[in-house]
């Protein structure tokens, strides 16, 4: 248990992917073989059965411990985590508290029922009276539905690769398939495998090499092509028998898109296509985050599938009739791709559009219609010119669209958790609509250190009301925000949501009347 608890604490402290990978590798090396697979399942979020709500658990703790509710709430405001709060302030009645392994704890929880509240309460009381703080922390986390690690599957695969020596593709395939976490051994799970599974192996995704607009403008060669790069899911569809879908993050995501089941009937065997999964309605790409929402769902409802029509925008063909065609020039592969997509007659597969630019074309005018659509930018291709020589081998030239910007008024500021409990980390901004301030988004602060201090001082001196960690402030400060896309939203009062908003400038000397209006933002969306 102590090894798993230390892993959680270290991952929470780690900021870089490299640090998180080292924490995982250290856990795999030092943990007991019997509990290694169960610990891995918790890291991957495989076990998310929730036994009780956090409010009910807090009430139980107040009742059993004798602490007052206001004391618990104040401690929770500082730690930001109910599990950590309970494990730190609790005092086991047993003078020699015991320690369970993470697997033993999982086996005890498996006997509980979400419907038998009394048995869950008795289990909680038993845990906090007789076991160590590490066991209490993990037990409370599992009672509330498991862990929410901000860790990419690629980091897990890399750590497993260093520990086991197995190929990353095989490891990705294994961690993405369902498995019985309590009744399976780590070694047998990873080392006993069917070689036929290698049929689903994807090709490496070419990384993007960012270039500036000036390079495109100054290019003398007229044969320049711009191919759209969406904010959807970059992936490969592999049809070697059954069709599977691999994401750019080396995740097997076939089960999240059941509408593509049976795709092998549309293509001859031995086909590998690369492109983007994007929502598609009325012959155009729509809110791109809907495709990412699929990846965050435990199960898919039929209603969700019918409302969100997902298509695959085919960009390239990598394999044809089991032959690797990546060495063939792109324009020849494009003709082959067009032929395969057209003969498939499958509405789920679309050709990604390519725009050609001549010497005298104004690239700004060509790109303007796409500025507020769901694009990240364009892949830039041309045959035999200066741009080609600027590309390193096995990379794609990528022209990223400049971020969109608006001026918004600061309304609220929220303090963080843990080490950020005494600093404001979330800022809510509003736009003007018919003389009223309508909240539009929360934004991350990317300003310099001096500006951040000035903002904190302004908030402390201009607070109107307090709501726990949230403060409302006098709406007289204007900020410039950048964002990647505008999307419609039924959940927000404004009817809109911004993707990846960032605070880029404090407009100290500008009046709030210069703020962007909500009508202007809606016009950009339309």
Category from helices, strands and their pairing: alpha+beta
Tell me what portion of residues adopts beta-strand conformation: 15-25%
What separation lies between the terminal Cα atoms?
54 Å
How many strands, which pairing sense, and closed or not: the largest β-sheet? Answer: 7 strands, mixed
Q: Mean pLDDT, rounded to whole units?
A: 79
What is the strand tally?
21
With helices defined by DSSP (H or I, 4 residues minimum), what is the helix count? 20
Low confidence ranges: 303-307, 384-392
| Inertia-based shape | flat
The portion of residues assigned to helices is 25-40%
Notes on the protein architecture:
Mean pLDDT is 79; it is low at 303-307 and 384-392. Helix content is 37%, strand content 25%. By secondary structure, the chain is of the alpha+beta class. It is built from 20 helices and 21 strands. 31% of the residues are buried. The strands form four sheets. Strands 3, 4, 5, 6, 7, 8 and 9 form a seven-stranded mixed sheet that branches. A five-stranded mixed sheet has the order 1-12-11-2-10, with no helix packed on it.
Topology:
Elements: H1 2-13, H2 17-30, H3 33-43, H4 54-65, H5 69-79, H6 82-89, H7 102-110, H8 117-130, H9 133-143, H10 153-164, H11 168-175, H12 186-191, E1 208-210, H13 213-218, E2 224-230, E3 233-240, E4 242-247, E5 271-281, E6 284-285, H14 289-295, H15 302-307, E7 310-320, E8 323-324, H16 330-344, E9 349-351, E10 354-357, H17 363-367, E11 375-382, H18 386-389, E12 396-400, E13 404-415, E14 424-433, E15 436-445, H19 449-461, E16 463-467, E17 470-473, E18 478-483, E19 485-488, E20 496-499, E21 502-507, H20 518-525
Parallel strand pairs: 1-12, 7-9, 15-21
Antiparallel strand pairs: 2-10, 2-11, 3-4, 3-5, 5-6, 5-7, 7-8, 11-12, 13-14, 13-17, 13-18, 14-15, 16-17, 18-21, 19-20
């Amino acid at each position: 248990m102590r090894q798993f608890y230390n892993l959680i604490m270290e991952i929470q402290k780690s900021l870089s992917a490299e640090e998180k990978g080292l924490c995982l590798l250290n856990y795999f090396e030092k943990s007991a073989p019997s509990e290694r697979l169960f610990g891995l399942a918790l890291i991957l979020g495989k076990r998310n059965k929730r036994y009780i709500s956090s409010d009910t658990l807090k009430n139980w703790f107040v009742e059993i411990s004798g602490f007052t509710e206001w004391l618990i709430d104040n401690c929770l405001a500082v730690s930001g985590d109910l599990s950590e709060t309970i494990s730190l302030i609790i005092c086991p009645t047993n003078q020699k508290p015991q320690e369970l392994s993470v697997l033993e704890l999982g086996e005890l929880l498996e006997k509980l029922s979400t419907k038998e509240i009394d048995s869950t309460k008795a289990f909680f009381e038993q845990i906090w009276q007789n076991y160590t703080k590490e066991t209490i922390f993990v037990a409370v986390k599992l009672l509330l539905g498991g862990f929410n690690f901000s860790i990419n599957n690629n980091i897990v695969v890399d750590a497993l690769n260093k520990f086991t020596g197995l190929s990353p593709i095989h490891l990705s395939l294994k961690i993405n398939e369902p498995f019985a976490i309590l009744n399976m051994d780590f070694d047998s799970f990873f080392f006993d495998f069917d070689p036929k599974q290698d049929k689903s192996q994807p090709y490496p995704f070419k990384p993007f090499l960012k270039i500036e607009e000036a390079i495109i403008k100054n290019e003398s060669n007229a044969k320049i092509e711009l191919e759209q790069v969406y904010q959807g899911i970059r992936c490969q569809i592999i049809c070697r028998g059954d069709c599977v879908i691999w994401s750019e993050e080396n995740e097997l995501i076939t089960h999240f898109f059941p509408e593509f089941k049976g795709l092998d009937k549309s293509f001859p065997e031995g086909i590998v296509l690369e492109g983007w999964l994007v929502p598609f309605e009325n012959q155009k790409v729509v809110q791109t985050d809907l495709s990412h929402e699929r990846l965050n769902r435990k199960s898919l409802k039929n209603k969700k599938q019918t409302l969100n029509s997902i298509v695959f925008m085919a960009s390239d063909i990598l394999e044809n009739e089991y032959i690797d065609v990546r060495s063939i020039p792109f324009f020849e592969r494009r003709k082959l791709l067009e032929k395969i997509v057209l003969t498939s007659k499958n509405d789920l597969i679309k050709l990604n559009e390519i725009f050609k630019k001549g010497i005298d074309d104004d690239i700004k005018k060509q790109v303007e219609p796409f500025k507020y659509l769901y694009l990240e930018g364009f892949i830039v291709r041309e045959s035999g010119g200066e741009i080609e020589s600027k590309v390193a081998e096995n990379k794609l030239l990528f022209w990223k669209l400049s971020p969109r910007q608006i001026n918004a008024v600061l309304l609220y500021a929220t303090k963080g958790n843990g080490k950020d409990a005494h600093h404001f980390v979330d800022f809510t901004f509003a736009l003007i609509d018919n003389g009223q301030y309508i909240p539009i988004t929360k934004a991350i602060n990317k300003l310099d250190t001096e500006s951040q201090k000035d903002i904190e001082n302004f908030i402390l001196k201009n607070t109107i009301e307090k709501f726990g960690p949230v403060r409302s402030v006098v709406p007289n400060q204007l900020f410039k925000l950048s964002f990647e896309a505008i999307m419609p939203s039924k959940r927000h009062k404004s009817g809109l949501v911004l993707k990846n908003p960032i605070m880029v400038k404090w407009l100290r000397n500008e009046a709030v009347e210069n703020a962007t209006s909500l009508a202007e933002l809606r016009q950009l969306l339309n």
